[in-house]
Amino acid sequence: MRPLFFILIVFTALTLKAQNPELNKYNFGNGLTFSGKDNFKLNLRGYLQPYVDIKNYTQNLESNNLTRFRLRRLRLRLTGKAPERKLDYRFQIDLSGSSEVGDGPSSFLLDAWVRYSLTKRIKLTFGQKATPTDNRELTMGSQTLQLVERSRLTSAFSSIRDFGLYLEGSFKTDRGSFLRPAFAITNGDGLNVYGSDHGGLKVGGRIDFLPFGLFTNFGQFRQGDLVRENAPKLVIGANYSHNQGISSRRGRASGAILYLNSQREESLPNYTKYGVDFLFKLKGFSMLGEFVGSAATVPEDISQRVRNDGSVSSTFNVNGVQDIANYVKGRMMLGRAYNIQMGYIFKSLWSIDMRYTHLDADEYSFLNNGAFYNRPNYYTLGASKYLSKSYGIKIQGSITYAELNDGSNDIFGGEVSGGEWIARMITSIAF
Question: Computed from CA positions of residues 97, 99, 105, 107, in that sequence, does the dihedral angle turn out positive or negative?
């Protein structure tokens, strides 16, 4: 990935030199746009998000609040377009060290791709980017979220970004409606795979139908209806992917979980994910609905597992019994989930938003892990104040209540019960 990073920097520098660009415009929140000959355009934008959350438990009030301050995101993005050459590209980095979803660390390089327009309706992309095989919320920009954080469905099942080939189309059909198919062949190991590639390829796609035409100002890829659509806008979609030989819980971290057969050769489970979703907007009101399910098949020749320290073990203990298949499944994100959220942005640029997320774990699944999941229901209420219509500055706060199943833990491993309360606040500042 580092050579690609260097190539993009050199390519951009040479392009700028050849085009001799001039500042074309600056829109608050949408960055600096430069233009040159042959309709060449270059956009530089970025944003930062200071963040705080406070967590407590209803039946463990003697424990201290768990408070965390951090820089949630610090993004810089460079986008270039050369229409005469039918090319466009993107390079995006994150300097915050925070993961897009969940509480783990982030990778430095997010997007690095080049896209070629085969026709006006069909485009081919090569590189690292957000995959269309994730749920709809992952197609929406982090800066445009209507609540402080993405849903727990997203953190449980999404792979976020993959490296590979992407074929995308946009076709106008009867009465102004649109059909948007996408197909992807990727490494299936998530982003920034610097080491060995494990397992096979991931193949999948998505198809979206927009019966009332396109959303205004890329509204399909932004959550709240900040532009206040004058006519109803709706997109309905379905996605599917099959990962041949997965080496992590959901296809996000290559080599995190490895298994071997009796010849010490890698033998990895297959992971299938599917889902349906929709987004509706009208005059400040928006509604997002998503369903995701997953399943796994475990090879019969698995006989050993690789520990975190690199040593090998032949023990697969499940409830005191040697059970290889269910041990493997217990380390993967298996089950189903649905998320429904809605909100309304007033003309004063205040918004009220709410969300309900339900996780339904398989009997053997990492979704039963007490520290990070094992919480079937999440209820969130939030409020936001937008200080501009271009997502230049906004302040958001939310309260989430999560129901705790038996065996749930806090981040220190202590057993907790009842409910989990999480208060969050974030500020977005863009240029």
Answer: negative
| CATH number, domain containing residue 272 | 2.40.160.10
DSSP character string of 129-189:
EE-TTS-GGGGS-GGG-SSSS--HHHHHH---EEEEEEEEE-EE-GGG-EEEEEEEEE-SS
What tens digit of pLDDT does each residue of 118-175 get? 999 999 999 999 999 999 999 999 999 999 999 999 999 999 999 999 999 999 998 8
DSSP 105: B
Closest CA to 402 of 423, 376, 365, 424: 376
Rg (C-alpha) for the chain, rounded Å, is: 22
Domain count, the chain: 1
Tell me how far apart the alpha carbons of residues 54 and 49 are, in angstroms, rounded to a whole number: 17
Report which of 138, 113, 158, 128 is spatially closest to residue 11, judged by C-alpha positions.
113
* Distance from C-alpha of 396 to C-alpha of 349, rounded to nearest angstrom: 12
- What count of other Cβ atoms lies within 10 Å of the Cβ of residue 6? 10
Counting other chains too, the contacts that 138-142 makes at CB distance below 8 Å and 24 or more residues apart are 139/220, 139/221, 140/221, 140/222, 140/223, 141/221, 141/222, 142/49, 142/73, 142/75, 142/100
Tell whether the model's pLDDT for residue 1 goes beyond 50: no
User: Residue 30 sits in which domain range?
Assistant: 2-430
- Identity at 47, one-letter amino acid code: Y
Lowest mean pLDDT among 80-89, 185-194, 231-240, 301-310: 185-194
pTM score, two decimals? 0.91
Angle at 168 between CA 165 and CA 169, to 5 degrees: 155
CA–CA dist 392, 27 (Å, integer) = 9
pLDDT, tens digit, 9 for 90 and up, residues 49-62: 999 999 988 776 55
Strand, helix or coil at 190? coil
Q: How far is residue 313's CA from residue 316's CA, in Å, rounded to a whole number? A: 8
φ and ψ of 220, to 5 deg: -65, -25
